[in-house]
Amino acid sequence: MFGLMQDWPLLCHRIIDHAATQHAARPVISRSVEGPIHSTTYAEVRTRALKLAQRLDRDGIKPGDRVATMAWNTWRHLEAWYGILGIGAIYHTVNPRLFPDQIAWIVNHAEDRVMMTDLTFLPLLESLADRLPTIERYVVLTDAAHMPATPLKNAVPYEEWIAETDGDFAWKQFDENTAAGMCYTSGTTGNPKGVLYSHRSNVLHAFMASLPDSKGISSRDVVLPVVPLFHANCWSLAFSTPLTGAAMIMPGAKLDGPSVYELMDRYKVTFTAGVPPVWMMLLDHMEKNGLKLPHLKRIVIGGSASPRAMTQTFQDKYGVEVIHAWGMTEMSPLGSLCSMKPEYASLSGDARLDVQVKQGHPPFGVEMKITDDNGKRLPWDGKTFGRLKVRGPAVARRYFKDDTEILDDEGFFDTGDVATMDPQGYMQVTDRSKDVIKSGGEWISSIDLENLAVAHPKVAEAAVIGVQHSKWGERPLLIVVLKKGQTAAKDEILGFMQGKIAKWWLPDDVAFVDEIPHTATGKIQKTALRDRFKDYRLPSAAA
Ligand code: AMP
Question: Which of 47, 134, 150, 185 is catalytic?
Answer without folding.
Answer: 185
